[in-house]
Design a protein that fits this description.
single chain; 2 strands; little secondary structure
Length: about 80
């Protein structure tokens, strides 16, 4: 489908539930309300980071995550492990 404003290509999808060919505006079909790609296999999640292994900044006022070198990605402070 071609955009009337910019003449660019617009992504369309076929709804598995109602069969309508619609412009992909979100996760649900705007014709019938069903979730799009509900019958499609789950997407590969290898590219997503494993959040359970992240190390949070030791400065409790910072929301950053510690990088591989041991420094916070937001404030730059060196990571200090908690004392037991």
């Amino acid at each position: 489908m071609i955009c009337e404003k910019c003449a660019g290509e617009i992504e369309t999808v076929l709804c598995n539930h109602c069969g309508e060919n619609i412009v992909k505006l979100g996760s649900y079909c705007y014709a019938c309300g069903e979730a799009l790609d509900s019958d499609a296999p789950e997407k590969d999640r290898e590219d997503e980071p494993d959040l359970s292994t992240r190390i949070l900044c030791s400065d409790e006022a910072c929301i950053g995550v510690v990088n591989e070198q041991g420094f916070c990605k937001v404030c730059g402070k060196e990571y200090i492990p908690p004392s037991d």
